[in-house]
UniProtKB/TrEMBL annotation:
GO cellular component: Golgi membrane
Record-given protein name: UDP-N-acetylglucosamine transporter
Sequence segments annotated as region (Disordered): 42-67
A Pfam family: Nuc_sug_transp
Spans through the membrane: 76-96, 108-130, 142-165, 185-202, 209-226, 246-265, 277-297, 312-331, 338-358, 364-383
Molecular-function GO terms, alphabetical: pyrimidine nucleotide-sugar transmembrane transporter activity
Family: Belongs to the nucleotide-sugar transporter family. SLC35A subfamily.
Bilayer disposition of the protein: Multi-pass membrane protein
Domain of life assignment: Eukaryota
InterPro entries in UniProt: EmrE-like, Nuc_sug_transpt
Keyword Chloroplast attached: no
Length: 395
């Protein structure tokens, strides 16, 4: 009954954005088990990525205590969310590359696309907060008390808000200068930077195999970059002025920003009991001034902000907005190894599709480097099975 009232109350504001309505109901469905008693530990933070045991232990403890029907539903949500994440990861890199290199009369502003993605994400998160709070009125009251009245806490979120805006703009620069496959592989360095800041800032200790995985990851990306420097492709984007150095530098900067912002955001989440969706409302609200400022610096005016926005760009905006929310669901319901598998499949999909759509030339060196990166992802997420203690009964 509560869910029906929620949908009826929020439908008018969502009719203007059908894509938002679809994504909102998708996440609303995914979060239903939490309302029904399937309270799983593991917030969508870098902690579960850096310590896979935390996520897997919490999931196994909770899931085994549930009824068979709930375990079946849990497994369904887990694999559906992984499939969605795989498709989203692959589609985002390919779509960003196509958007920046396609031959159109009016080019869109990537800064404007970033701002619109934050607005879409804000609307989705507001609806999720209302659903989480039990209604529109209680949701609005909760947001007012958290965002407005608790202004000191809100100000703390300014740092990751600014960094995420900068990161998203850098990713567009990288996608414009690197082919989709190279971009997808290079961006996996965010795992390395996140681990680096976790060790430096949070004093977290990594296992020996995780250090080895990080070294393998760095070596794999280096091999891919060397192969992409030598390889030549004949796609339409080559007609544009591109620089491999600029693309790699932008991706590397985005990885460092992603690592630091993720660790900072993790500390903010740990130090309060505010929900992830409420934190995302704060992030998006504070990101809008930074994003608008970035657009003004690039364009000088807010006029023609939607220049070049067609159906494909709006699809890209919604796809980018949904990315962070999908990751939140995956980290909540799936373990780190399955998440790594989804990332690996997304890399393979990007390589294969790039060969057909962008005439990407797959070399042995690139394939070897990609295999190293994929292997490092699985190695980093590896969790050794705890030995079972057998007790003998004395007669």
């Amino acid at each position: 009954m509560l869910r029906q009232v929620y949908i009826v109350c929020t439908r008018p504001c969502l009719d203007a954005a059908p894509g938002v309505y679809v994504f909102t109901n998708f996440f609303q469905y995914l979060m239903n088990p939490v309302r029904e008693g399937l309270e799983l530990e593991g917030a969508p933070t870098p902690e579960t990525e850096l310590n896979p045991e935390l996520n897997m232990d919490n999931i196994s403890k909770k899931s085994h205590s549930q009824s068979p029907n709930k375990r079946v539903k849990f497994g369904y949500i887990k694999y559906v969310s992984l499939i969605v994440l795989t498709v989203q990861n692959a589609a985002l890199g390919l779509s960003m590359r196509h958007a920046k290199t396609r031959d159109v009369e009016e080019k869109f502003s990537s800064a404007a696309a970033v701002v619109m993605a934050e607005i879409v994400k804000l609307v989705i998160c507001i609806c999720l907060v209302m659903h989480e709070s039990g209604g529109v009125k209680t949701g609005v009251q909760s947001m007012y008390s958290t965002v407005v009245l608790n202004i000191k806490d809100t100000v703390r979120v300014c740092v990751p808000s600014f960094l995420y805006i900068l990161q998203n703009n850098l990713l567009y620069v990288s996608a414009a200068n690197l082919d989709a496959a190279t971009y997808q592989v290079t961006y996996q360095l965010k795992l390395l930077t996140t681990a680096f800041f976790a060790v430096i800032v949070l004093k977290r200790q990594l296992k020996k195999w995780q250090w080895g995985a990080l070294g393998l990851l760095a070596a794999g990306v280096a091999v891919v970059q060397l192969s992409s420097t030598d390889a030549k492709s004949s796609n339409s984007g080559d007609k544009l002025k591109q620089s491999k150095l600029i693309g790699f530098s932008a991706a590397l900067a985005a990885c460092f920003i992603s690592g630091f912002a993720g660790i900072y955001f993790e500390k903010v989440l740990k130090e309060s009991d505010i929900s992830v969706w409420m934190r995302n409302v704060q992030l998006s609200l504070l990101s809008l001034p930074f994003g608008t400022g970035t657009y003004l610096i690039q364009e000088g005016t807010l006029n023609n902000m939607f220049k070049g926005f067609d159906g494909f760009i709006w699809y890209l905006v919604i796809l980018q907005a949904a990315g962070g929310l999908i990751v939140a669901v995956v980290v909540k319901y799936a373990d780190n190894i399955l998440k790594g598998f989804a990332t690996s499949v997304a890399i393979i999909i990007s390589c294969v599709v790039s060969m057909y759509l962008f005439s990407f030339v797959l070399t042995v060196q690139f394939a070897f480097g990609t295999a190293m990166v994929i292997g490092s992802i699985f190695l980093y997420g590896y969790v050794p099975k705890k030995p079972v203690r057998r007790t003998s009964l004395s007669v």
